[in-house]
Design brief:
The protein is of the alpha/beta class. The chain has two domains: 3-67 and 150-247, Rossmann fold, CATH 3.40.50.300; 81-148, no CATH class. The chain is 36% helix and 24% strand. The chain is built from seven helices and nine strands, in the order E-E-E-H-E-E-H-H-H-E-H-E-H-E-E-H. The strands form two sheets. It has a six-stranded mixed beta sheet, with helices on both faces. Helix 2 packs across helix 3, helix 2 (88-98) runs parallel beside helix 4 and helix 6 (190-196) crosses helix 7 (230-247). The longest helix is centred in the last third of the chain and has 18 residues, at 162-179. It is globular, with a radius of gyration of 18 Å. It starts with a strand and ends with a helix. The chain binds adenosine-5'-diphosphate and magnesium ion.
């Protein structure tokens, strides 16, 4: 396996709370890895450490060929991250402006992504005029506009109704199959994890360890039909069994 992300013997505490004592994890390049674990097990903390937002206490980590222009992180509170004074178009274009791309290049890149997402909104309007689901799609597009090699996503679908949830999963899958980035997807929804991920890592309670890594052999593209197959349910059962152990249910 070609490692995109390697975490070795990570340690992190907040005050008296020891989140990671001796935590190790490898993430394979060009795959979607879902991280599934009990509430408070340190999933967001892990992404925050790996992306350099908060410091670790010990151990080490490495992201292969890390380049901050080709790395994106969609936060748990994605909606608050849209800039209200910029139009929807200007929000998506922001990372390319920061990179100093020309106007025509930006227009071309945004149009390419709009086509991939088949997402019809008024691009000259502002985020507050959109529904929550639409805002989230804009936040996603802004994260993907730089065509990142490594993408971190923290519970991206949790605030959406089921229909928008399925739509956004479909968009993300399409993007993944086109560009094949390494994706680290945090979710507390087993169906989402099994729908999208190649591998599902189940974490324990604190101090957090990897309890099990479950391979998901379902072929891509995974349609809604795939969610009804025997194979899908077998993988889902495995994850549920591991989670039962993790959460002492
Ligand atoms: P998860 O995303 O898995 O639900 P988090 O990574 O948000 O969990 O949090 C892991 C643990 O660390 C929790 O017990 C949480 O209360 C604690 N924690 C996270 N961030 C902070 C912080 N900035 N200050 C104090 N405690 C924190
Ligand atoms: Mg979290």
């Amino acid at each position: 396996m070609t490692k995109a992300v390697a975490v070795n013997n990570l340690r992190k505490s907040f005050n008296q709370t020891e989140v990671f004592q001796d935590f190790s994890l490898d993430i394979e390049e060009g795959k979607i890895t879902a991280i599934f674990g009990p509430n408070g097990s340190g999933k967001s903390t892990l992404l925050n450490i790996l992306s350099g937002i908060i410091p670790k206490d010990g151990g080490n980590y490495h992201i292969e060929n890390f380049n901050h222009f080709q790395f994106s992180y969609i936060f748990q509170n994605y909606r608050e991250s849209l800039l209200p004074w910029r139009t929807n178009f200007e929000n998506v274009a922001l990372p390319l402006q920061i990179q100093g791309k020309t106007k025509s290049e930006i227009k071309e890149r945004v149009e390419k992504l709009q086509k991939l997402f088949e997402f019809k909104i008024n691009w000259d309007h502002y985020p507050y005029e959109l529904s929550g689901g639409q805002q989230q799609i804009v936040a996603f597009m802004r994260a993907l506009i730089t065509e990142p090699n490594v993408l971190f996503i923290d519970e991206p679908f949790s605030a959406l109704d089921y229909e928008n949830n399925l739509r956004l999963r479909e968009h993300l899958q399409k993007y993944y199959l086109t560009f094949k980035p390494t994706i680290l997807l945090i979710t507390h929804n087993i169906e989402e994890a099994v729908h999208l991920a190649d591998k599902i890592v189940v974490l324990s309670k604190k101090p957090t360890q990897t309890l099990e890594t479950i391979e998901n052999p379902l072929p891509y593209p995974r349609s809604l039909q795939s969610l009804k197959t025997e194979q899908f349910h077998q993988v889902k059962d495995k994850v549920l069994t591991a989670f039962q152990k993790a959460a002492n249910l």
